Structure formats: structure tokens, C-alpha cells
Amino acid sequence: MKFIHIADIHLGAKPVQGETREEDRENESWQAFKEVISRARQEQVQILLIAGDLFHRQPLVRELKEVNAQFSTIPQTQVVLIAGNRDYLTAESCYQTFPWGENVHFLKQSHMEYVELEGLDTRVYGFSYWQREITEPMYQDIKVKDGDYCNILLGHGGDEKHIPFRSNDFDKSAFDYVAFGHIHKPVEIVKDKVVMAGALQPVDCSDTGEHGYFQGEIKDHVCKTEFVPLHYCEYVPLILKVSPEITQSALQEYVLSRIRVAPKYQKFRITLKGFCDEEHPVDANQLRSMEQVVQVTDRCCADYDFEKLKLQYGQQILGRYIRTLEEMPQNEVTKKALYYGVEALMAE
Ligand SMILES: [Mn+2]
Fold it and tell me: Which one of 109, 140, 297, 329 is separated from 96 by 20 to 30 angstroms, measured CA to CA?
């Protein structure tokens, strides 16, 4: 039995303000979702698992119609989904009354239930969020019903406020596969068995690294999975160490050299670190305007004139601090301690 496991599609998420090409980013989550549907068709997978937060917020009826229309294009695939902490159920949710197609199974109870998928000898267990937070560890000690079935658990959570669990919670469980969502970074918590799919595509630029979905196959209760990246967008962190000697053009030249060899879907998130010339700081705006750069955070400190500070603050704590640090063996650590200490004392 072949399946695809996705989570945290966050349809309808508005990209963070200040990011370039904002509309594109919103479309990208829909495009990535449609891509998964066509992959499910091509790969002839029997089950599509959606582990919560299909939407970033309460879905609109027209959005559910669109999603359902997509599902109707893969009638051979059984779709099983739950609501996460973002698209949790309320009394007014459109989720409550929406008429899903025949191949769509929405586990909408607030307690554990399962759907038995006809002809596949498979039961998929799960439940939906009915509130923003669930702090109880509700995935501990789940028993499966008797019978020779392939058992899958569909879950959402993994942090303190969203159904915490530990990797060994499923050691003795009868699940052949546990499909999780919520944490945006894809990770195989237990190889081929307990998997956090990660967000289908980054939701904001703090979701760095590759994103995509897991594809798997279960045969005789043995599961094999692989991560399949989707490349609509990938945020790449880039730390630039600045020193007073470095010029703006040298910095830009370096960023350009990285952009030139990067595929178009990669977007850079730059952090400036180190010490800059107080009178000629780095122009972060110029870096920000470069192609494929989405964010520039300036964490540089001004470079200090220590000789002048020693004269000025001779016997005070600042002067003593500088002299003490200068007498210590000079390395990166003492250099940093000197700068950060002076910065802190100057702020006093
Ligand atoms: Mn979530």
C-alpha cells in the first residue's frame, strides 16, 4: 500500500510583511498542494494523509470547495485529514457541514476515532483540534482495535502546548506508521515509523531548509518512507561576518557570488554579525534590495576606540574592564568579551 504524508500546508497564510513578492508566496502554498495531488495521481498512491493545519486559519467555503475539487481528481486515492491548531474546529467552522467527496475522510471528533479504508485493509486513527491548544499528552498509550489491519495514526502536535509526546511513546504501539504534523521542520522521529512531515513549503522565512512531503509504502506491516522535497521556495540563512575593514561593495560582491550559483527558488535571509565602523555602518537596505534576498537583520556592533575609552573612563569600571581584558590571552573569545562587555557597560 503506497501513501503520501503531508502536513502544515497553511493555505491562506499571508507571508510576513516586508518580504518581497508576497502574492507569489501565497500562491505557492496552493501550487505546492496541487503538485502533491498530481504526484498522488502519477504515483498511484492509495492513501493521502494530511496531518493537520491544511489551512492557516478557519477555511472559507470556497476554499474547501477548491480543496475538495482537487481531491475529486484522484478518486483512486483515499484522503484522510484532521484539523490542527491553526484550522481547529469551532461550532461555526465551515468544516462542520462541508459535504466532502466519497474518497475524503475527515476525522473531526475531538477524541480518537478511526476510519476503515475499504479494500485496503487499513485503519487510520486520529482526531481533530477543537481548540487552539491541547496541553495533555493525548498520544500516549493508544490501543488499536483487534483485527489484522494496517494501522496508521494521524496526529498533530509535538510541543508543550500542542499535545506533547516523546519519540519512545510509540515503541510498543501497534501502529505501522505514525504520521505527524505541526513542527515545520521535516524529521523522521523514528526511522520509517514515526514521521513529522514538516510544512509542505516554508510558512515564513524562519522555516529555513528543505520542505516537502514523505512518500511511503507499507507491506506486511513493514514501512519504508522517503522524503521528497518540493522546490517552490526555500529560505537559506546566510551569516555575514563584518569587520571595520570590509567594504559595502565587497559584501555585496560576496552575496552576489552566492546568489549566482543558487537556484531561483532559494531566498536568502541575511544576518550581519561582527563589528562595523561606527561612522560607516553597513547599508542593510542595499543588501535588502538585491535579488533573492528577503530579509537582512543587522546584528553588528559599532567598533570602539578603546584607547580613547581608557583615557575617558580610566578608573571607572569601563576603563578597568578594558585593561583587564587586554591583559588576558588574546583570542576570539576575549575579543568578543571585550566588545560585548564594553557594549553593555556603555549602555548603562
Ligand atoms: Mn500546527
Answer: 140
CA proximity to 267, closest of 200, 198, 209? 209
* Structure confidence at residue 97 (pLDDT): 95
Q: How far is the CA of 158 from the centre of ligand 1 (A)?
A: 9
Segments of the chain scoring below 50 in pLDDT: none
Cα-to-centroid distance, 230 and ligand 1 (Å) = 20
Please state, in angstroms and rounded to a whole number, the distance separating the CA atoms of residues 297 and 306.
26
- For helices 332-347 and 306-313, angle between their N-to-C axes, nearest 10 degrees: 50
Domains of the chain, CATH where assigned: 2-229 (3.60.21.10), 234-347 (no CATH)
* Predicted pLDDT of residue 346: 79
CA of 157 to the centre of ligand 1 (A): 6
- Structure confidence by residue, pLDDT tens digits, 2-31: 999 999 999 988 766 555 555 566 788 999
